Amino acid sequence: MSLMQYIAPQRQQRAQHGADKYHGDISANYDAKREGDPKWLLEQYWIETMLEDLPEGSGILDIPCGTGRFFQFCGSKGFVVKALDVSTDQLQQAANKLKALHAQGLADGTKFRLAAGNVLKLGAPDKCVDASVCCRLTRWLSPDENVTAFKELARVTRQRIVW
Fold first, then answer.
1. CA–CA dist 61, 78 (Å, integer)
2. What are phi and psi of 155, to 5 degrees?
3. DSSP character for 9?
4. Gyration radius of the chain over CA positions
């Protein structure tokens, strides 16, 4: 007998608090609400540390990319980034961030590709990126969906997955 049991949230509750949550004002204020949070800063540090030794031109899959929190770092390293998210509002915020970074000379806009995408079915070729980053998503997925997501990332990633 297991001491822990996964209790799936009701579908309506899950949708309300998962991917469908990140629209409108929530997307517009997403970074401002989180940027100074110690957990956010620690995540940023560890993800950058786990990618910093990759050479310029390395392909990075960022899913969910959200508002593009890793774009400045990836741009400074000369990575080629495929950034995916299921929220069109988050993708719009990411596009705005990318334009601002490009205007400041901090990111080469030609090395970033933004698109709608779902980690459960990437539709990308096998081993097409050097590294994949999947941050702040696992809590919104069921255990089975987490397994599916990890398998998809393993399928498309050559070197490392930051999960």
1. 14
2. -65, -40
3. P
4. 16
Q: How many CA atoms lie less than 13 Å away from 96 in the CB half-sphere?
A: 12
Are the C-beta atoms of residues 59 and 129 closer than 8 Å to each other? yes
Which burial class, exposed, middle or buried, applies to 19 when counting CB atoms under 10 A from its CB (0-12, 13-18, 19+)? middle
What SS3 class is residue 5? coil
Considering the entire predicted model, what is its pTM? Answer: 0.81
**Residues 6 or more apart in contact with residue 71 via CB below 8 angstroms:** 81, 83, 94, 97, 98, 101, 107, 112
Residue 12's pLDDT band (cuts 50, 70, 90): very low
Tokens linked to 149: 């997501």
Taking only the tens place, the pLDDT of each residue in 138-163 is 988 999 999 999 999 999 999 999 99
What distance in Å separates the CA atoms of residue 54 and residue 158, rounded to the nearest whole number?
12
